[in-house]
Amino acid sequence: MSLLLQSLVLGVLLGGLYALLAAGLTLYFGVMRVVMIAHSAFLILAAYLAWWFSTETGLDPLLSLVLTVPLFFGMGVFMQRVLISRLRPATLTMMSVLLTFSIALVIEGMLGFAFSGTQRRIRLDYGGANFEVFGANVAVVKLIAFALAAVSLAALFLLMKKTQFGQALRATIQHPEAARLIGINTDRVAGYGFGLGLATAAVGGTALALDSTFYPSLHWHWIGPLMAIIVVGGLGSIPGAAIAAMVLGMGQSLLQIPLGTTWAQTFFYIALFATLMVRPQGFFGGRLAQRF
Amino acid sequence: MKVKTPYRVAGLAMASCMALTACMSSGSDSGSAEDGDGPIKIGISLPLTGDFSEPGKGVQRGYEAWADYVNENGGLLGRDVELTILDDQSNADRVAADYEKLINQDGVDLVFGPFSTRLVVPAAQVAQDYGFLFVEPAGAAEEVFTQGFDNLFYAAPAVADDHYNYLADAIEALPEDQRPKTAAYAAMDDPFAMGTAYGLKDRLEEMGVETVVDEVYPPNTTDFGSIAAKIADSEADVVVGGTQYQDAVNMIVALQQLDYQPKMAAFSTAPTNPEFPEAIGSKTEGILSPTGYTPEADFPTNQEFVDYYTEKNGTPPAEDEANAWTTGQVVAAAVEAVECASPDPECQSQLIDWLRENEVDTVVGPLTWDAEGRPEGAHLIQQYVDGEIRIVLPEEAKEADLIIEKPAW
Amino acid sequence: MPSASDTTTVTSAATGDTTRRRGSMLLKAVALAVLAAGVLSFPSVAANPFILSVGVVIMSYAVLATSWNFVGGFTGYISLGHAAYSGLGGYATGLLVIHTGINPWLAMVLAGLVVAALAVPIGIASLRVRGASFVIVSIALVLILLLVFQSWGSFTGGSNGLRVPRPFGPEVLRPEQHERFFYLHALLLGVALLVWWLIDRSRFGTGLKAIREDEDKAQALGVPTFTYKLIAFVVSAFFTALGGGLYALWFGFLDPIFQFSILVGSYMVLMSLLGGIRSLFGPFLGAVIVGYAVEYFKNQYGDSQFHLVAMGLLLGLVVLFMPDGIIPAATNLVERFRPQKTSIREVSAADLAEQRRTAGPEAGQADQQARTDDGTDIPSTDTPTDTSVTEGARR
Asked: Distance from B263 to chain A by nearest Cα, in Å?
């Protein structure tokens, strides 16, 4: 029983991180119809930056967020305005996949070049610290990572719902032509949307770096589950992605008890195939998903 | 326009083929023909980038130190040795192409093996096809020796499955009521790492230690929360990790996060790494590990190796460096004995035959091999005692007493 | 080859002239013969077995890239995960040989058929929805197969890898093996190219290309888009599996990490794109260039991760600046110096949109308009009307 509870707790903590990252992927898809393969490469880049920051300065890796979040936001805007927008509209979806794929390769190669292929881990004094809740142990670092993800996701949600920019962003996602007609500068909004998406990778990467090792080619390991999550959730729907992330994260964690680590990982892909067979638009997706 | 282009392309493709041939053939077969004088060229492919790059670089340092040492001491058969080291990017396809290149294009006289089981098998295949002797410094898994290679020798004391033999013997020697009752195993899905853990598992099961957890995880696993949860939940007396490096660190931290305290903890490879104590926050006391090498060993040539290596690199050699040096020693012994070093199949088969029948003194002790190239020795067992790595088993080599009951971490 | 290009200039300018057409046919035949002779003579020109083995690898890439191009080139659906089919083909071949002991060549063809059968449900799942999901499934498939083949050790050899027995006996020395496999790969490439060419000329091929240019319109015009896509996909998987199987028989060792690698799949994409996915010989040309570049980078920058950066940059540059590949780019260059253009040309929707947005008086605004409109899947041919409407509305 305690194992079940323990796995549930671990699943929730992991699902939070998945949800944040999937929200980023959903944003790119929403504003530009771009499947951003490089998302997880940026995630690893952020983890490396957090590690590098903390080894160089000796400060807590969480502080690196002050630098990486604006940096990644800027890079996102740059990517959208300079690279993605150059692509021919007729082939945008396919070519953007290749373009972001090549960006992922470049990031992986550069990380390997700069930091070598060795696995890295930030050593924290509170790395092994834990406390007990109803017989389940909760690691402090995992809780911090979860809190970081939850706060960011909440902030993103508020931004989308309550601010004028959020309204413009949602309008751009829902109907770009109409958004343009009512005077929204959709190009600029799309750029900011991209920046916001990449900022989630910065937060996610830092959270990841707190309690895990990372190496340059780790991003392949992340992109599969994330892709599965956004398809299951319905391409383009942020709440859908968040719910799917939680469900799949917990599912994976629980399935590890009977199936073992390796086979539990296939859960994501089985969910992906099942979704496409049964309900290709995803379980929470809107109008967008049907067309893609 | 639709007519012409493909054929222009055809021409271009053909021209590229020709250019390819021309470029690649330049500089080939230089210096391979003449025998007897000029340096002995030794070809090696190592994973200098990619997944295995860290141990790969260790092996490279060992090989280079060995070559320098030989050259400073009169060479081999009176000739200098010259290493050609290629990078296989930890990729099996590349490693085969590399040996193909070394043997055919660079015209090397001898080849040394690469790192890791995954790369040894395809490389050994190429060497065998060209009749080359293949002594390898890493590739301890049983699978390497069951492929029917007749040219392969592993230059270390024992294959993976036998790494924990001394520990198993020691546990068996305990009185019945003091032996552990239950054990949990978690191994990386890697021939070497699984070999070590399952070697010990077989022995422990034989003596009645119940297996309560048996987990295999993919090499790319970074989240050990769930595995640790299972192990902690089982409350096993012994935890055995078939690990490489980072996975051991992650697993130990995850176990600590769940406040699990085993009576005995054994992990392969990682604890022999100098950075290990720092990585897990110095909570190392009592952790066991098999090791094929210790700088303190009093084998005849070891002291010289340690001194030479330390002077050259500033730090004492670790296991990877020692295995590379051992490879050099083994091949050198064969070369000196049959007095030839050339790609000629006749010479190579003499080298192979000599190693089958003879014992070689190395820095890891005297080595002999069975018909498949398995070394017939055993690994030492090390333990963290008072924060220091100490050899605790076997009796005759021990530097400290084995701590049976591991302190809390 | 100045003379060759001179004659082609003349022949291609001719429209409807029978004699000249016959001349062009003859020229085609001659050029094809020269290409074939060039490829087939490679083993005898190769200086040593290593170069020959590089040749085999490049031919293998050419087979895989050409196979990829059945789906990528005809339908425009870009699969990043074709390594799944080559890996499956390799494993199926190896496992059939090991467990049933049948003739290795028969095993290879059977493996191709098995993979083609597997591709049907995968195709159904991934082709039902447009673009993005297809790419996601293609990547997911490689990752899932990697997991399965690594974990299912008792059947696949797991992470220890699988040794595939040799099709030729021990009396065939390694250099001789390389030579035979070079010809075998060349043969398979020839077959794949022939099938591609036949499809290209067929009604089926026209339907596929219609899907590539505008799937909605193709559907509206009565093209059974889903069936067509599925058939192209299965044919592609079949040839990719054959390529994988042949490689497995040559290389003799399969490791799941390298068989089910996203990088291998992306090489196929890069090669095809670089050469030109609309051209018969595009993927072949791309394979020669990339295969050679890989060797070159390895020689030059062996000790670093630089090959990844180089590959990433190359792919990015091709996507941004030369999405149609070398062959069309070179053709356009030649066209520009040509006195008159041929009357009928194959023009893609993208080309049209491009022309229109550079030609129109309000080029800048039209440009923006076209991009965003197309992003939401409104057919690009509607762009001009759309623009005028919005322009009007703005005023």
From this structure: 19
Clarify whether residues B248 and B352 are in a common domain.
no
Residue of C nearest to A234 (CA): C133
Residue identified by tokens 């040509």 is C338
User: What range defines the domain where residue B190 resides?
Assistant: 162-291+380-397
* Token representation of residue C7: 């004659």
Burial of A39: CB neighbours in 10 Å, binned 0-12, 13-18, 19+? buried
Q: Does a structural domain hold residue C22? A: yes
Q: What is the pLDDT of residues A222-232, one digit of tens each?
A: 888 898 898 88
Q: Say which of A2, A10, A121 has its CB closest to residue B233.
A: A2
Together in a domain, B148 and B170: no
pLDDT, residue C193, reads 94
| Contacts with B21 from chain C: Cβ below 8 Å | 42, 45-47, 51
pLDDT, one tens digit per residue, over C20-77 is 667 777 888 888 888 888 888 888 888 788 889 889 999 999 999 999 999 988 988 8
Higher-confidence residue of A260 and B170: namely B170
In sequence order, the 6+-apart residues with CB closer than 8 A to the CB of C322 are C274, C329
Instruction: Give the mean model confidence (pLDDT) for residues B47-56.
Output: 74
Chain A residues in contact with C319 by the CB 8 A cut-off are 87, 95, 98-99, 102
Choose the closest CB to B233 out of A3, A119, A125. Answer: A3
Residue B99, CA distances (Å) to B22, B84, B289, B341, C53 in order: 20, 11, 33, 17, 11
User: Quick one: C320 and C281 in the same domain?
Assistant: yes
Q: Between A119, A127, A256, which is nearest B226 by CB?
A: A256
Angle, helices A140-162/A238-259, rounded to nearest 10 degrees: 160
Chain C residues inside the 8 Å CB shell of B96? 251, 253
Tell me whether residue C347 is in a domain: no
Decide: residue B387, CB within 10 A, 0-12 exposed, 13-18 middle, 19+ buried.
Answer: exposed
Range picked from A128-137, A190-199, A274-283, B370-379 for highest mean pLDDT? A190-199
Of A111, A265, A280, the CB nearest to C133: A280
- Which of C74, C127, C305, C365 would you mutate first to test chain A, the one with the most A CBs within 10 A? C305
The domain tally of chain C equals 3
At residue B163 the predicted structure's pLDDT band, cuts being 50, 70 and 90, is confident
The arithmetic mean of pLDDT across residues C4-27, rounded, is 56
Q: Is residue B338 within 8 Å of residue B351, measured between CB atoms?
A: yes
Chain B CA closest to residue A123: B279
pLDDT of residue B377: 78
> What is the token pair recorded at A260?
């073992």
Q: Are residues B263 and B385 located together in one domain of the fold? A: yes
How many Å lie between the alpha carbon of B389 and the closest alpha carbon of chain A? 21
With respect to CATH, is domain A2-291 assigned 1.10.10? no
**pLDDT confidence of residue C105:** 94
Dig out the tokens for C321 from the structure: 């600046």
> How close B44 comes to chain C (CA, Å)?
14
Residue C17 structural domain: 1-40
ipTM score = 0.84
Q: Is the pLDDT of residue C382 over 60?
A: no
pLDDT digits (tens, 9 = 90+) for B16-25: 444 444 444 4
Structural domain contains residue B282: yes
CB pairs under 8 A between A and C: 190
pLDDT computed for residue C350 by the predictor: 63
List alpha helices for C202-325, DSSP H: 203-213, 215-220, 225-251, 256-259, 262-275, 282-301, 306-321
A105 touches chain C (CB under 8 A): yes
pLDDT over 90 (residue C83) = yes
Structure-block tokens of residue B220: 């790319």
Q: Quick one: tokens of B74? A: 């009169």
Residue C78 pLDDT exceeds 80: yes
C141 and C8 in a single domain? The answer is no
Of C140, C213, C308, the CB nearest to A272: C140
Hey, of A5, A211, A221, A252, which one would you mutate to test binding to chain B, going by the most B CBs within 10 A of its CB? A211
Q: Does B92 touch chain C (CB under 8 A)?
A: yes
